[in-house]
């Protein structure tokens, strides 16, 4: 909000406000005009590599099952070749379990203890959700250029790629949460 101290001209506050408003409007209008002129001069900037538009349907050389098998095998090999990610996920699981276990150590089964156990369960669910979300986000962001190149070449379908990645991550999505829940259960209750 403007005050009379900010008004440098010898005018009323509402006049000062209108002057500033018209100044901001003129800046916005000039910016839009300059941006439109730049796009008219360089129309190749309108197209991006990330937009995929194909009008014809793609005929794949391999069946759905063959694509799935090949992508699943490649995803499993990719997971095996990166043991550091497995170690990081395991250490993250142990760290979270120990921290939550120390905070909620051996709760009594009275009203206060049950409220604390509910808090531990809430934090556990939030942590498990974010662990899974971040692993999926990191996977797809790092492999996006490869995926786009191979998809544009007609090597496989999007649904096959997605399902193969999810099935290859399934052991991690089952084992690490099970370890976390088991450790936390015996530390809290």
UniProtKB/TrEMBL annotation:
Q: Residue limits of the ABC-2 type transporter transmembrane domain? A: 66-188
Has UniProt tagged this entry with the keyword Oxidoreductase?
A: no
What is the protein's name according to its record? ABC-2 type transporter transmembrane domain-containing protein
Which parts pass through the membrane? 117-137, 170-188
Q: What is the protein's species of origin? A: Euroglyphus maynei (Mayne's house dust mite)
A single Pfam family, by name? ABC2_membrane
InterPro entries (UniProt xref): ABC2_TM, ABCG_transporters
Keyword line:
Membrane, Transmembrane, Transmembrane helix, Transport
């Amino acid at each position: 909000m403007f005050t009379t101290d900010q008004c440098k001209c010898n005018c009323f506050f509402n006049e000062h406000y209108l002057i500033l408003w018209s100044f901001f409007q003129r800046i916005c209008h000039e910016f839009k005009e300059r941006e439109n002129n730049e796009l008219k001069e360089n129309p190749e900037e309108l197209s991006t590599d990330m937009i995929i538009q194909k009008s014809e349907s793609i005929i794949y050389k391999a069946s759905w099952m063959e694509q799935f098998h090949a992508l699943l095998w490649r995803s499993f090999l990719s997971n095996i070749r990166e043991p550091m990610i497995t170690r990081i996920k395991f250490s993250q699981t142990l760290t979270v379990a120990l921290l939550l276990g120390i905070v909620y150590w051996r709760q009594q089964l009275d009203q206060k203890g049950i409220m604390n156990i509910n808090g531990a369960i809430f934090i556990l669910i939030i942590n498990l959700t974010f662990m899974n979300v971040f692993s999926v986000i990191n996977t797809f962001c790092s492999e996006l250029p490869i995926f786009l190149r191979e998809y544009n070449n007609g090597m496989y379908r999007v649904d096959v790629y997605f399902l193969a990645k999810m099935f290859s991550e399934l052991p991690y999505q089952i084992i690490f949460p099970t370890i976390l829940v088991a450790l936390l259960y015996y530390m809290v209750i």
